[in-house]
Write a structure and sequence with these properties.
54 residues, globular, 1 helix, alpha+beta, three-stranded antiparallel sheet
Length: 54
């Protein structure tokens, strides 16, 4: 997860409007170029917790 958090800056540098990360627990974390946000402003229907079956 740490590596992905560091990579999000690279995505924003290439023009990404948002970065979405999924923790092992299924919890989604959303970022815009200002920092962490409560949810996606692009795809409002995306859940904040995913049911991950491993």
């Amino acid at each position: 997860m740490k590596e992905m958090i560091e990579k999000k800056e690279l995505y924003f540098a290439r023009g990404a409007r948002e970065v979405w990360l999924c923790k092992d627990s299924g919890e989604m974390i959303f970022f815009d170029n200002h920092g962490e946000i409560a949810g996606s402003g692009i795809l409002e229907e995306i859940p904040v917790i995913l049911d991950i079956a491993i």
